[in-house]
Design goal:
elongated; 7-stranded mixed barrel; 7-stranded mixed beta sheet; mainly beta
Length: 261
């Protein structure tokens, strides 16, 4: 029997329609694109749980994990938030943040409680939805810095992110190292910060400031010394410039890295 209150029944289908419209808006309109990130090791990531973060804010979530056809990498499909759609560009870098304990440094301790997450650094290239993830956090660019190549017979205590010092003050860091082309030595790529770049001259001398220096003399006895506690653990490089300083070093200059001052 039709009554004057029968129109209330229309609220049920109208409410269902509004709810469906909200789901469509939330899942297809307000969200960003789906991107695929390839990692060598995706341990710690979880489908529909692991977050993508930028500057501490959540900008996406992992949706699916799958091995590639060659079974040598993991394809991580993630959906970005609508406000982070601009991250889907060439040059954007993704990496997994895990707790890391290494000599001289500890990082990612918060992930022990909250779990691993994917960090991102924006790029500025063309639009793309496919990325190759970095194995660790990439070193940020620094315009105006001075890049040097240091040559030494063996690596010894130097490692990536080891500091470069001048008179005990940190003025740069080691970016990476590798075997020389003839495999007879090691080449170290180092960066000097912009403000300290004028300190490096063509006749500057670099030496290994890490580890322990042990000396023994017949009359003086044994002498054990270290540059500092930090370089003892993580390695380090120090340099000095003579009072009769030569011309400023140019970007890409080569220097020999000595074992001692």
């Amino acid at each position: 029997k039709k009554t004057r209150h029968a129109w209330w029944l229309w609220l049920v289908p109208l409410g269902a329609l509004a709810l469906c419209a909200w789901f469509v808006y939330r899942d297809y309109i307000a969200t960003g694109p789906v991107v695929t990130i390839y990692f060598q090791d995706a341990s710690g990531l979880e489908e529909n749980n692991t977050q993508i973060r930028l500057l501490g804010a959540t900008v996406g979530q992992v949706k699916k994990l799958a091995l590639t056809k060659e079974s040598n990498r993991v394809a991580v499909k993630a959906r970005l938030a609508g406000s982070a759609a601009q991250l889907a560009k060439v040059g954007t870098t993704f990496w997994i943040v895990r707790p890391e304990f290494k000599v001289g440094a500890i990082s990612g301790l918060r992930t022990i409680i909250s779990g691993e997450y994917i960090a991102v650094r924006p790029g500025k290239g063309a639009r793309t939805n496919v990325f190759v993830g970095a194995e660790s956090e990439p070193i940020s660019e620094e315009p105006g810095s001075l890049h040097l190549t240091l040559l030494m017979p063996s690596l010894r205590s130097v490692q990536e992110e080891s500091s470069v010092y001048y008179r005990g003050i940190k003025v740069g860091e080691v970016l990476k190292y590798q075997l020389s082309d003839d495999a007879q030595g090691v080449t170290i790529q180092a960066r000097i910060h912009k403000d300290y770049a004028p300190l490096v001259r063509v006749n500057s001398k670099f030496w290994n400031a890490g580890g322990i220096d042990f000396r023994f003399g017949l009359f003086s006895g044994a002498e054990i010394s270290a540059e500092s506690a930090k370089t003892l653990l993580s390695g380090g490089i120090e340099f000095a410039t003579p009072t009769d300083a030569g011309p400023p070093a140019t970007d890409g200059s080569f220097f020999r890295l000595y074992d001692k001052p």
